[in-house]
Write a structure and sequence with these properties.
- The complex is a heterodimer of chains A (371) and B (74).
- Chain A has 15 helices and 13 strands.
- By secondary structure, chain A is an alpha/beta fold.
- Chain A folds into three domains: 108 residues, Rossmann fold; 116 residues, Rossmann fold (3-Layer(aba) Sandwich), CATH 3.40.50.11740; 47 residues, no CATH class.
- In chain A, strands 2-1-7-8-9 form a five-stranded parallel β-sheet.
- In chain A, α2 packs parallel to α14.
- The two termini of chain A are 40 Å apart.
- In chain B, a hairpin with a 5-residue loop joins β2 and β3.
- Chain B has 74 residues and is mainly beta.
- Chain B is built from no helices and five strands.
- Chain B has a single domain, classed as SH3 type barrels (Roll), CATH 2.30.30.
- Classes of the chains: A alpha/beta (371), B mainly beta (74).
- At the A-B interface, α2, α5, α6, α8 and α11 of A face β4 and β5 of B.
Chain lengths: 371, 74
């Protein structure tokens, strides 16, 4: 298909890998963070890290929306799902994210009406079809997904649907990036920018990275050639002593973003003063709530919830993995107590989580290297 | 008309991965486009956030909603 096949050409990939080899300084170690979980998944799926010189290290960032949901929010969702008459809807991965005692999948097994949806618009359809039931959508995701939730709520309001509401866990990518850049235990040379977040917000929000921290950012697509080219562009900036925001993903990302999507988001959402991120703690102005104009659709106002902060399991090192301080396989429970089938930490739950991606695509190769 | 499932056993959840799926428009009205993905599956896609589209246009789709119109790569 156009816009897909041409970015998976193996010969071109090898050619870009050769160019990368010619750009690196053999005496320097490079740490490049891919911000988005979708990039992490592609890197492992296509073996992109195997094409890179040994001194170019990819660090996996906090851009997996499932991985940053704290357990207390999962507990709140489960509590709502157990209310009489509620149909609780969420994306597939969210079903397996552990709360303090259970997952939503386990709540479903216990009798709660929990249903997976592919789109928030599917949740709205369920609400239309079940006017005598309360339908709740558990919204997660960065700025890529938030417009879909906003559009859904706009339609709910226009239709006067009173049995639909939303638990809003949408988060924004810039505040955690700033927190990472302020972290003393992390040294990064550049960033592979989140292409689909930028489709919505544009390139401008990322200019603080070169301006305030002197690091290059290349907004990248998700096909293997996109990622290889973005790494090459970062290395060229570093070699040339430049640090700026470049857009590798021009076929999708306009510099100004999607103005219609931003307008809908501004109408439906407002910034929360602070929000807890799994592994990263509380970060100011890093998440969205429903605006006052849409308060009637706020499930947190409609239903009683525990709203209790729950500490992460002690054995889990998701925080260090999310910050890129350790690699997934360096976690004490990786691949033993914590697997995709029995996840302790959220990085193992979502296929886009660094741990699950490494477990699924890289673990055995790493074992062979060790032998 | 298929609605792509989001399953717990799916090896890759496009919604949670912030991934966008390129699709080609086969028909459209003011708010919905019928689109085909690379696998040949057909989807109904909300186009409120990208504006009017026509048959042959390519869209980037996330969670059932088009978030961008694809243009020739530079």
């Amino acid at each position: 298909m156009k816009y897909v096949d041409e970015y998976r050409d193996a010969q071109l990939g090898q050619a870009v890998a050769t160019q990368i080899l010619s750009e690196v300084d053999p005496d320097r170690h490079y740490k490049v963070m891919e911000v988005c979980g979708g990039h992490t998944h592609s890197i492992y799926k296509y073996g992109i890290d195997d094409l890179l010189p040994a001194n170019v290290e990819l660090v996996h960032g906090p851009g997996c929306p499932v991985c940053v949901i704290p357990m207390g929010r999962v507990d709140d969702g489960i509590a709502i799902a157990h209310h009489d008459g509620v149909i609780f809807t969420c994306f597939g991965d969210m079903m397996r994210v552990p709360g303090s005692e259970h997952t939503l999948l386990e709540a479903k097994a216990q009798g709660a009406d929990v249903r997976m949806v592919y789109s928030p618009l599917d949740a709205l359809r369920i609400a239309r079809e079940n006017p005598d039931r309360e339908v709740v959508f558990f919204a997660i995701g960065f700025e890529t997904t938030a417009p879909s939730t906003a559009l859904t709520l706009k339609r709910a309001k226009a239709e006067g649907l009173r049995n639909f509401s939303c638990v809003c866990n949408h988060v924004t990518i810039v505040p955690p990036l700033r927190a990472l850049l302020e972290s003393p235990d992390l040294r990064l040379d550049g960033f592979i920018g989140p292409g689909h977040v930028c489709t919505v917000v544009g390139a401008r929000p990322f200019h603080f990275i070169p301006a305030d921290y002197g690091r290059p950012v290349v907004i990248s697509g998700f096909e293997p050639l996109d990622i290889l080219q973005s790494i090459l562009m970062i290395l060229r900036q570093l070699r040339g002593g430049r640090h700026e925001v470049e857009n590798q993903y021009r076929r999708v990302v306009p510099d100004e973003g999607n103005l219609r999507a931003l307008q809908v988001m501004a109408e439906v959402f407002a910034l929360r003063p602070h929000f807890e991120w799994r592994g990263l703690g509380f970060i100011s102005q890093s998440a969205l709530r429903l605006s006052d104009a849409y308060a009637e659709f706020d499930a947190e106002q409609r239903f009683a919830t525990p709203s209790v902060r729950v500490a992460d399991p002690k054995a889990c090192q998701c925080g260090e993995v999310l910050k890129g301080v350790i690699k997934p396989w360096e976690c004490k429970v990786f691949g033993t107590a914590c697997t995709p089938e029995h996840a302790i930490g959220t990085c193992m739950v979502s296929p886009e989580g660094a741990c699950a991606a490494y477990y699924n695509f890289g673990r055995y190769a790493r074992q062979r290297e060790a032998v | 008309m298929t609605a792509q499932a989001c399953r717990v056993d799916d090896p890759h959840c496009i919604t949670c991965g912030d991934e966008g799926v390129p699709m080609r428009v086969t028909a459209a009205d003011a708010v919905t486009a019928v689109c085909r993905d690379a696998a040949g599956d057909t989807h109904e896609v909300a186009i409120d956030l990208v504006g009017p589209v026509g048959a042959g246009d390519h869209l980037l789709v996330h969670a059932g909603v088009a978030i961008a119109t694809l243009e020739a790569a530079s």
